[in-house]
Specification:
This protein is mainly α.
C-alpha cells in the first residue's frame, strides 16, 4: 500500500471526518513509508507474508538483497525464500514465528499516531 495515494478529497463516505488522517499525518506517513517501502516492495515481489517480513527485519536482512537469496529455481540447492527466512529465524531465536505479527502498514500507522 503506497501512502502517496491518500488524499482527503477521495474519502470513503463511511469513514467519519475525525477518523480520516490529517494533512500532517499524511506527510508523516510519506516520510515513514520511505523507510518501510523496500520491505513493502519485497513482500509483493517475493510473495512473502507479514510474518516472513517481520522475521527478516528482526534478523537484520537487507530487503534489497533478498533477490540473491530467492534464486531457488536456478540454483536448486537453495531453499525457497520463505523457508530460508523461517529456518534462520528458528536457529537464531529458537521459535517458529514472532509472538506478535504486525503488518508494516499497522506499524507505520502506530508510529504516525505516536508522533502526532
Amino acid at each position: 500500500m503506497k501512502f502517496e495515494s491518500l488524499t482527503l478529497e477521495s474519502h470513503d463516505p463511511g469513514i467519519a471526518a475525525s477518523d480520516r488522517p490529517s494533512v500532517g499525518a499524511i506527510e508523516k506517513m510519506k516520510n515513514l513509508s520511505s523507510k518501510y517501502q523496500p520491505w513493502i516492495d519485497a513482500r509483493k515481489r517475493f510473495h512473502l507474508s507479514h510474518a516472513h517480513i517481520q522475521m527478516a527485519r528482526e534478523l537484520g536482512l537487507n530487503p534489497k538483497k533478498l533477490g540473491g537469496l530467492a534464486n531457488h529455481r536456478q540454483e536448486p540447492w537453495k531453499a525457497p525464500l520463505p523457508e530460508f527466512i523461517a529456518e534462520l529465524y528458528r536457529k537464531r531465536f529458537g521459535k517458529d514465528r514472532p509472538d506478535d505479527v504486525r503488518p508494516l502498514e499497522q506499524i507505520i500507522a502506530d508510529r504516525v499516531k505516536g508522533q502526532s
